[in-house]
Write a structure and sequence with these properties.
- This protein is an alpha+beta fold.
- The chain has a single domain, classed as Nuclear Transport Factor 2, Chain: A (Roll), CATH 3.10.450.50.
- It is built from three helices and seven strands, in the order ααββαβββββ.
- Strands 1, 2, 3, 4, 5, 6 and 7 form a seven-stranded mixed sheet that branches.
- A hairpin with a 2-residue loop joins strand 6 and strand 7.
- The radius of gyration is 14 Å and the shape is globular.
- The N and C termini lie far apart (about 40 Å).
- The relative contact order is 0.24.
């Protein structure tokens, strides 16, 4: 087992690094941390795959840290569910979303396999 012990702090760091990359994409970080079969269901109904994430350019997104209601649950050895609420400002509009991520422990570390967002009530 090459991946780090799953702790809420570890996954908070990984999720925050991911969000910092939304603003200033690091192809290397994404390439290292996204699973080969990564899928995202965004809150607007779009479905994104790993290639889309690797090819996306920077967005003018302001993200509020730390995330609210952050939780991590180990579903099985090497499988972690992370949930939280985050607030972003994009194109002058501020909105919140509830997010869930599934992280898989691999010989190369933790990989983000799946992420889904649902618009949060104001």
């Amino acid at each position: 087992m090459a991946y780090q012990n799953p702790t809420p702090a570890l996954f908070r760091d990984l999720e925050e690094e991911l969000w910092r990359g939304v603003r200033n994409p690091s192809r290397q970080w994404l390439d290292t941390n996204l699973a080969e079969d990564f899928t995202e269901f965004c809150r607007f109904g779009h479905v994104y795959d790993r290639d889309h994430m690797l090819d996306s350019s920077g967005n003018d997104v302001e993200v509020v840290f730390p995330f609210d209601d952050f939780a991590m649950e180990l579903l099985a050895p090497g499988v972690a569910l992370v949930t939280y609420k985050n607030t972003v400002t994009y194109q002058g509009k501020t909105s919140g979303a509830r997010r869930s991520s599934i992280w898989i422990g691999t010989d190369d570390g933790w990989k983000l396999k799946f992420q889904q967002a649902t618009t949060a009530a104001d």
